[in-house]
Amino acid sequence: MNATPQSVAVPDWPLPAALDLAARQYPDRVALDFLGATTTYRALADTVACAAATLAARGVRAGDRVAIALPNSPSHVVGFWAALRLGAVVVELNPTLGAAETARLIADSGARVVLAWAKTAADIAAASPESDVVPVDISRDLPRAKQWALRLPIRKARTQREALSGSFVAGGQTPHWHALVASTPPLPGDHPAPSPDDLAVLMYTGGTTGEPKAVMLRHRHLAVNAIQGRAWTGHDAVAPEVVYGVLPYFHAFGLQLCLVYATLVAATVVVLPKFDVATVLSAQRRRPGTFLPAVPPMLARLTQAARERGADLSSFRIAISGSMALPAETARAWEETTGGLVIEGYGMTETSPVALGSPLDERRRPGALGLPFPSTRIRVADPEDPTRDVAPGERGELLIAGPQVFDGYWNRPEETAQALLPGGWLRTGDIVTIDDDGFVTLVDRTKEIIVTGGFKVYPSQVEARLREMPQIADVAVVGMPAGDLGERVVAAIVLAKGVTSLDLPAVREWASTQLARYAVPRGLVVVTDLPRSAIGKVMRRMVREQLLATTPA
C-alpha cells in the first residue's frame, strides 16, 4: 500500500529552481526526446538562459506577459522556462485556435511577445498588429537527418513539413525563434529571480457563460501541486522516469504533469507534438516509457493497437487518467496489457490542476475521482447554499481548498468572487458523493460543459459562432454519448427563413475559422424549434434529452 503523507510543505522557491536543480544534479540526463532529437538537462538550461536573454532583448521584463501558441515541442519548453526565468508570465494558448480568437486572448492578457507556430504566425500577426509575434518553426527541433528529409520533394515530406511548419519561410522581417536564440548570449546568472508568490502562468478556461477567462497561477501554486503529485506517485529523481508528453502543454493537465512535474523529478520527457498511436508506439520502441498522463481515449486506443500489433507497453508502471471519467473496461484492459497501474485523477485549471486521485495500490477505483491530495481539503455543500454542508452520503457540490487553489481570474473580480468563497474554498460546479471510505464520485454537473476527448467545450461559445452563420436562425449545442471520446459536440439548429437545408460540412467549415478543432460540431440536427424556459432561455438539457430519445440505439 502506497504511504502517502497527509500534508506537504509549500515551497519557498520559484519554478525555474526545479530546472536549475535538475541541471546541476543530472546534467547529462536526457531531459527531452523529440522524435529522436535529444536534449540533456544541462543543454536545456543553457538554451533557456539564451532564450531568456532573447526575450529580454525584445523588451520583456518581470511581470510582462509572454504568450506561447505552440504544439508540444522543445521550443515550447524553452520558451516556457525562459519567460519564467525573467519573472515574466506565460500565457498558454491553444495553437489550433483561429487567429481572431487568439488575437482576442492576446489583447485580454496584454501579452508583450507572442511565440507563435510558424504555420499560424502570419495570421496571428495580421490579427494582432500591435503584438511582437515571433515565428517558431518547430521542425528546427527535429534531428538533423529528419530536418533534411523534410526538404525532399515527395508527398510524405511535404505532408510532414506542413504539419510541423506550414508554409512559413524564414527570412522575413522577424527572424525565427531559433536564429534569435542561437545568436544571443545567455542571461547573466545574477539576473533577479522571480518570487514564489509572483504570477507564473495565465491559462484560459471557460465558465458557465463560456466566455474565456484566464486563471492566475503563481509559482507556488504549480510548484506545490508538483510536490503533491510526487508524494502521491512516490517518484524519485534518483531513479529516472520516462514521461510521455502526449497531453498538450496548453492544457493544465499536460502542462503540470508533462512539464512542471516532470522537471521536478528530473524525468526524461518524450515530447510529441500531437497524439498519434503510430508515433507513440514508434517512440516506445526507441525509448520505453514508465509514466503516462493521458485521457481515457488515448489509453483505449493504445491498448487496442498494442494488442493488434503485438507492441510492448509493459514498461509503463503508472498511467494517470484525467479530464473525463475512466471507464472500468478501459482501466482493466490497460492494466492487463501493461502489467502496470492506471488511476484516475480529478482537478481543474483553478487547482493547478490536480486535487484528488485514486491511490496507487489495490484500493484504486476506476470511475471514482478518488481521495484528496496531501494538504487538500474538500467539502460537499448544498449547491443553492454553499455555506451549508450536506449530510454524509448525500449529493452536493464539491468544494476544494488547498495550497494549489488559485487566487483568482485575470481582471475578473466579480467572477473570482463567485468562484472563491471565504476561507479559500473553490466552487467546482460538480455534484458528487463521498462514501464511507472517503472516496469521491462524480454524479452530475451543474455546468453544461461538454467533455470530448478530455477537452472541455463550452456550448455558448460554439453557439455564438454558429448564430453568425446566415443560414442559421437559432442553435443549441449539446454533448451526446461518443464511446471512448466521452461526448461529441452536436448542434441542434433552426434554419433561417427561406433556407431549406444545411449540411454538416458547411457548418464545420464555418465554425473551424474561430473555434478549436475539438469544439467544432461533429453532429447536426435540424429542428423546427428549441425548448425554452419561462424567461426565454434555451434549455440545453431538454434538447439533449430529446435527441437521445430520437437517436437510434
TrEMBL record:
<dbReference type="Pfam" id="PF13193">
    <property type="entry name" value="AMP-binding_C"/>
</dbReference>
<dbReference type="InterPro" id="IPR045851">
    <property type="entry name" value="AMP-bd_C_sf"/>
</dbReference>
<dbReference type="InterPro" id="IPR020845">
    <property type="entry name" value="AMP-binding_CS"/>
</dbReference>
<feature type="domain" description="AMP-binding enzyme C-terminal">
    <location>
        <begin position="462"/>
        <end position="537"/>
    </location>
</feature>
<dbReference type="Pfam" id="PF00501">
    <property type="entry name" value="AMP-binding"/>
</dbReference>
<dbReference type="GO" id="GO:0006631">
    <property type="term" value="P:fatty acid metabolic process"/>
</dbReference>
<protein>
    <submittedName>
        <fullName>AMP-dependent synthetase and ligase</fullName>
    </submittedName>
</protein>
<comment type="similarity">
    <text>Belongs to the ATP-dependent AMP-binding enzyme family.</text>
</comment>
<dbReference type="InterPro" id="IPR025110">
    <property type="entry name" value="AMP-bd_C"/>
</dbReference>
<dbReference type="InterPro" id="IPR000873">
    <property type="entry name" value="AMP-dep_synth/lig_dom"/>
</dbReference>
<keyword id="KW-0436">Ligase</keyword>
<feature type="domain" description="AMP-dependent synthetase/ligase">
    <location>
        <begin position="22"/>
        <end position="410"/>
    </location>
</feature>
<dbReference type="GO" id="GO:0031956">
    <property type="term" value="F:medium-chain fatty acid-CoA ligase activity"/>
</dbReference>
<dbReference type="InterPro" id="IPR042099">
    <property type="entry name" value="ANL_N_sf"/>
</dbReference>
